Amino acid sequence: MRLFLKSDQRAINYSFFMLAVLLFLLAFLWNTPLEIWKGSRIIFTAPGNLITDYFKIANVGAAFMNGALMLFQALFVLKISKTKVNSMIVAAIFTIVGFSFFGKNLYNSTSIILGVYLYYRVSKIPFNWVPIALFGTALGPLVSVVSFGFSLPTITGLLLGNLVGMIAGFFMPILSQHFVKFHQGFSLYNIGFTAGMIGSFFMAIFQSFELKVTPVYLVSQGHNREMSLFLILLFSLIFFLGWWLNGFSLVGFSVLLKESGRGGSDYFSQFEKGVVLMNMSLLGLISTGYVLCIGGELNGPTIGGVFTVFGFGAVGKHIKNVIPILVGVFTVGYFSAHDVSSTAAILAALFGTTLAPISGYYGPIFGVLAGGIFIMFTTNSLAQLHAGMNLYNNGFAGGFVAAVMAPILDKLVSRPKEKNLK
Predict the structure, then answer these.
(1) Lowest mean pLDDT among 3-7, 218-222, 367-371, 380-384
(2) According to the model, what pLDDT value does residue 381 have?
(3) Nearest alpha carbon to residue 95 among 199, 202, 224, 191
(4) Given a cut of 60, is residue 417 above it in pLDDT?
(5) CA–CA distance, 14 with 6 (Å, rounded to integer)
(6) Residue 263 has pLDDT above 70, yes or no
């Protein structure tokens, strides 16, 4: 089955462009142009390490404007690279949109993208560098911290920050190909694990020179009414679009639910577009509902988590393998010392769905177990290794959990082997 026809590519690019325009216009619904300008300056010059909610340090309008700019940047990269949209690109773009509400911005992402592209040019090895570059912006805070967080002279800070970003981006493709073998494809956020390792390496260098990076926890509250309306309307519209494309039926959806998701199943190449869009939108609605039902806040970080789950509805996730992870995170969080309604615990639940392939491959019981282990692991001390400079810290933790659980479950659980990962 061909992934997308030429006409489909134009329609998809146009849809992403319209989403960017929507985010741009919504910015002015919340704040004046002057407020957005001032807020954008704060966003561009903030260290941005975990957890820095742009709603909190700037304003909602500036965060939405940042989302529009980040989406325009991603579309520009697709345009100049002549990259066709596939499932992984879809996941990468919506992850970028999500993280543009906390941590990523136009400044701190550019040098990382250039670094990945530089490796592509130097290595002369043919590979699709664009998804790695887009996901690699997880290390955006690394650029911002060096540029603005060490009290360096302005020019020195900017030069060093962008140099570090290019170095990190340059080595991202090499390491990401290696680390996927570590967790055997049971964690969908492979770049998150890679970025965690790179961030930890740079953190060790900074500490050697007594350069301190302090993790932060800046989150906002009081936005549930308008943000839930925005998200529910957006995901409902996409669901009905998918339903329409699928002939107003759910034909094929039950087949998608049988996928394990291991290694990042490419749903757009396997199923009709309408089926995949319905899957994505249902994941978005479930994620939004989870935040609201447990009394959480729809702020910058949690909206980022919702968009990431939504995007990965094209790559490996579906409602059947995601829900057990959410149940496991909530259950262990509820009966332990964690506040399940806190932003940190909600992020553990949403991003913990990186382990959805464990649920899909070994069964829901082990998915619940994986979710429970994950919240204990990710809320412990892993973020201290990179001081929050890896925005995909939960992907970092997910890689470790998958690497431990997979070989154990392989010995204890009878399950037909799937095709070996390359």
Answers:
(1) 3-7
(2) 60
(3) 191
(4) no
(5) 12
(6) yes
**SS3 at position 414:** coil
State residue 421's pLDDT score.
42
79 pLDDT above the threshold of 90: yes
Residue burial 301-323, b: 16+ Cβ < 10 Å; e: rest: bbbbbbbbbbbbbbbbbbbbbbb
- Name the residue with tokens 């970092």: 396
Question: What's the CA gap between 280 and 102, in Å, rounded?
Answer: 22
Tracing tokens 């806040």 back to the chain, one arrives at: 297
* 95 three-state secondary structure: helix
Mean pLDDT of 184-210: 92
Report pLDDT digits (tens) over 41-52.
Answer: 999 999 999 899
DSSP codes of every residue in 334-400: HTSS--TTSHHHHHHHHHGGGGHHHHHHH-HHHHHHHHHHHHHHHTTTHHHHHTT--TTHHHHHHHH
- Written as six digits, the tokens of 331 are 């259950």
Instruction: Write down the pLDDT at residue 420.
Output: 42
Cβ distance 323 to 311 under 8 Å? Answer: no
d(CA 174, CA 169): 10
- Answer yes or no: are the C-beta atoms of 350 and 308 closer than 8 Å: yes
Cis geometry, peptide bond prior to residue 325 (ω within 30 degrees of 0): no
The neighbour count for residue 85, using CB atoms within 10 Å, is 22
Q: Three-state SS string across 111-178, please?
A: HHHHHHHHHHHHHCCCCCHHHHHHHHHHHHHHHHHHHHCCCCCHHHHHHHHHHHHHHHHHHHHHHHHH
| Tokens 């089955």 sit on residue | 1
pTM for this one? 0.94
Three-state DSSP class for residue 404: helix
The DSSP secondary-structure symbol of 84 reads P
C-alpha distance from residue 348 to each of 315, 395, 397 (Å): 19, 10, 10
Determine whether 244 is exposed, middle or buried from the number of CB atoms within 10 Å of its CB (0-12, 13-18, 19+).
exposed
